Amino acid sequence: LTKAWVVGDPFDPKVQQGPQVDKKQYEKVLSYIEHGKREGATLLTGGKPLGEKGYFIEPTIFSEVKVYMAKDEIFGPVMALAKFKTIFEEAIKKANNTRYGLAAGIVTKDLNVANTVSRSIRAGTIWINCYFAFDNDIPFGGYKMSGFGKDYGLEALHKYLQVKSVVTPLYNTPWL
Questions:
Q1: DSSP 44-61
Q2: Where does the pLDDT of residue 26 fall: very low under 50, low under 70, confident under 90, or very high at 90 and above?
Q3: What integer is the mean pLDDT of 123-135?
Q4: Residues in contact with 5: Cβ distance below 8 Å, sequence separation at least 6, in sequence order
Q5: Which pLDDT score, from 0 to 100, does residue 63 have?
Q6: Phi, psi of 27 (to 5 degrees)
Q7: Which CATH superfamily is domain 1-83 in?
Q8: What is the pLDDT of residues 61-107, one digit of tens each?
Q9: What is the pTM assigned to this prediction?
Q10: Helix (H) or strand (E) holding 128
Q11: CB under 8 Å to 99, separation ≥6 — which residues?
Q12: Where are the domains of the chain?
């Protein structure tokens, strides 16, 4: 799958992944990849700089990721896969065992599993059988330490509004 992933100019409609925003983020992502290898996660694919120009990194997938390894938001082309035996006791507990909650992906053929897990995971966006799908009408933003409010959708307007309550009695008050 990552072999077909198109990396390049983000203004090209065929491109699915652009570069890191700057050298600092590029180096940070590469250091996380090296850290994952040192910690014992299995590098399935990617993990290296891509090309001679720009801050491009190969799409990277790790397996055998333990909960203690996935504590930070990398904000780079890195996916961490973890195994679990039970959905309700182990998988949801692992998914929620982080201080972040921007987004999560669920892959299943069982609609009951999709509904139960999506309600149980504490994240701002849950993708079921897809990933990184956006629309301007769907609010996007995280839970816990991931984000400050929502972008997109009607919920995004709340960042620009401040609620005020004004109460006026409709009957004659004795102190006036």
A1: EE--SB-SSSSS-B--EE
A2: very high
A3: 90
A4: 16, 17, 59
A5: 92
A6: -65, -35
A7: Aldehyde Dehydrogenase; Chain A, domain 2 (3.40.309.10)
A8: 999 988 778 778 899 999 888 888 898 888 899 889 888 899 998 88
A9: 0.75
A10: strand 125-128
A11: 71, 144, 145
A12: 1-83, 97-176
| Token pair 């897990």: residue | 117
Strand partners, 106: 128
Pick from 152, 140, 131: nearest CA to 61: 131
Question: Residue 64 contacts by C-beta under 8 Å, 6 or more apart in sequence?
Answer: 40, 41, 42, 81, 82, 83
Beta bridge partners of 101: 143
Alpha-carbon distance of 140 to 136, in angstroms, equals 9
- What six digits make up the tokens of 167? 């109460």
134, amino acid identity: F
Cα–Cα distance, 22 to 42 (Å, whole number): 27
Q: Which amino acid is at 99?
A: R
- Residue keyed to tokens 């250091």: 31
Show the tokens assigned to 130. 């897809």
